[in-house]
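Re: the 431-residue chain
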Amino acid sequence: DCHVLTTLLAIYVYRSGRAVFHHVLTVPDLPKGYFAGGDYRDHCVVIKDEKDDHLNHCEHMLFWDHLDKEDHVINRFILLSCDPGRREWNPIMGPMNDPDPFGYLWIYSTETGPLSPISLANYPEGHDFHPLGFDVYPSKAGALSNLFLVNHARENSTIEQFVLDPAQPTVATHVRTLTSSYFVAPNSIALTSPTSFYLTNEHLMTYRLPRPFGSILSTIETISGPPLTWVAHVTVLPDGSIEHKFAALGIAFANGVALSRDGLQLAVASSSLAKVHFYSRDPSTNDLTLDRDVIVPFGPDNVMYDDDDTLIVAGHPHFPSLVAVVESKSGAKAPSWAISIRPVAANEDGELEGWKNSRSKKAGYDSRAPLSASVIAPASSTDEIETIFQSDGSVYGPASTGLIDSRTGIFYLTGMYEDGVLVCHPEPRNI
């Protein structure tokens, strides 16, 4: 029926038209490099593994804080999940050619700077290691920390549980492998306790489906953005079994997830729709209620809260360029973009500061960036967006996770098909 098709097309254009136009059909006019803290050539460096070149294709990173008894940070490390074999083994975006090469966990001290690979103790023989999203619980007064990590192994995707000891930070001891039929395409983890976490499932159709359906259906799902993915809450019981419950359904390409410092808000990246969903969380039940959506100027990958509960979002402004990099096409480069999202403060009358100004003034937000987010994403009535870093891929790309250490102002960025980690300092470093 023509009317049904017309209605479906109208719904698709309404939901996904803006994202498809800006992030599939349009090549963004991004600079070679831009850093909000100053000239990127003076402030930013790419740290690499000069010895073995294993610090590449790093999808996720986060802070592992060591706290004293009063919960003050006494030492802060950065943990990274990297998979140099990603171009030959990616069950979500393809291909699935060679699952044999192992991925790596890395640790970096924000205090002293040395970068070290983490050895995996007690890891099951013959079990693949293709790390993606993960989360770690802070160590308080020298206590052990639980780490849960998404692993895209050859037979199925699993969650690996490790223990980290602050006294021996370069060793992760494997505890168990968690499996579930619900782990279709797990991506990102946000811990709610040492043994429970939110988990995004980014696709319903993956390359694990029989050929040629896997590649075709996965690509269609990525671009068209049907609301087929979800956030679950997983509790690991003492015997290693799990309790799984759906916390948020009907998301288009649920990618990165992060829990605010106070535990009351969960941010979820919707890559296909170029949005971040903010959910209110009930800590007693882990139930989620959608609070608001914020449109961003790229397909968001991972989301991370800083110490002040400002959300740092990194992602991909142009999907075809990312595909070209994934497919290792000659000369291919994929752009990067990272932003901060912070709620607009309310004044004494309850009005949102800034929004009481004219919409035309608000429409020109993010005015310092060479390519302003306002050109692509309409202004939000609830949140302010500011570009931290952007690049056409020449300097660094494609971005997957951004972190800001609020104590030092240093900005860190990983690229899931890039070599090394970008580190940008608030003060010039390279002069």
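The radius of gyration is 21 Å.
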